[in-house]
Amino acid sequence: MNTFMNSAVDTIAKINGVLNDFIWGPIMLAFFLCVGLMFTLRTKVFQITHIKEWLDITFLQLFKKGNKKVLKTKDKHAISQFQSLCTALAATIGVGNISGVAIALALGGPGAIFWMWLSAFLGMMTNYAENALGIKYRYKNEKGNWVGGAMIYIEKGLGWKWLAIIFSIFCMCASFGIGNMSQSNEIANGLANSFGIPKPVTAILIMVFTALVILGGIKRIAAVTEKFVPFMAVTYIIGALIVICTNIGAVPSALASIFQNAFTLPSAAGGVTGFTVMLAIRQGVARGVFSNEAGLGSSVMVHSASDVKEPVVQGMWGIFEVFADTLVVCTLTALTILTSGVYDYTEYAKYIGTSLPEHLKSGVALTSAAFESVFGTFGGQFISIAIMLFALSTILGWSYYGERAVEYLFGLKAVPIYKIIFILVIFIGCNTSLNLVVGISDTFNGFMALPNLIAITLLSGEVIKMTKNYLARIKTGLETTNGEDNL
Questions:
Q1: Residue 70 clears pLDDT 70, i.e. is over it
Q2: CA dihedral 389, 290, 175, 462 (to 10 degrees)
Q3: pTM greater than 0.90
């Protein structure tokens, strides 16, 4: 019986490996970039040419008088624009910002960061398109709550309900894996290794906290994330800046290595420059997409719950979401590693395309080493706490994504059952080895992108029309009203 089970597990792992290599492979990553490039060109590089507008409407709005409209909402069935951003960032700012960047450096070299930047730059407009379409096609359910997401614009915009169902199935499965078990596993391992806290204790604490939040619905999730996300992000940013400022003299060479090695690697790579550059591109783009989720169609579900009336405005919040996640947080992680002296890319280049030897750190261990170079043993504990906060926020964000998928597939009555299962699954995540489960859910996560990218490409004309109409109204000084009325 054990032999049969082991054989079955091996077979599943092999099949998943093939699927994972495809969905996170060169063809799909090129698809991600091409869609982002298409929206970038068709909007005349909106993320640059209209940077003043989207920064003014999003981040800078938070510091202006009379910003209550952005921070608060009077709609009891919706959340504010700022809350939608924080809830989306809760899901995207996660372990990948700490470990994913380090893995990209270890496996792809400093040049991988350049390609991560490029994927984020183009991904800004992909996320913009998703969120604009999310607001346009959303509707209110029987409880009066806004419902939106990739599955909604796939069904209502394209009329392809079958594809919307496929997307929702992938999303629901990914919520249990990438959005739950892998995150709780990271928290349990980190607290056990750094502070000796037993995993079952960690599991119970996470379950209680998650239950208290998600059982209160999107309003309570948003109320928690609008306080939780800024705190954890600012704390991590300050820690990273201290490390970088301590090694400020190494910043120019770190930046130079990123640009130089985006297209070539040192001779230590053994004469396979073309191969290693491809690895840098793949690692950078894949880690960038995995971090900010632009193109997956995930964060649009929470953005659609915003009280905003203009689709383009919520699209701009999507631009800022990718900017904050990748171009700020991921960049700071990369610079802490590159300036701290714990990473010698000529040594890592010897093993690109092969398994790293034990003496070369990767992932969380590499980022921890960078922080420990300045803070000592506290640096490692700081990273453990950061991972706990980031992972915990990801659990909250993804619980809502899974909830929306379940409602679409089975109706509102199934949502409470989903929430209970989601909470119970945390215990499994904290106390079990999850290599295969996480691998499979990573594949589901990636496969969310395929129907979503197809949909936003086919609906791109509507995005461009919304954008032109909005800019025309702004140019003539007309106030924006309900975006759906202006199409």
A1: no
A2: 120
A3: no
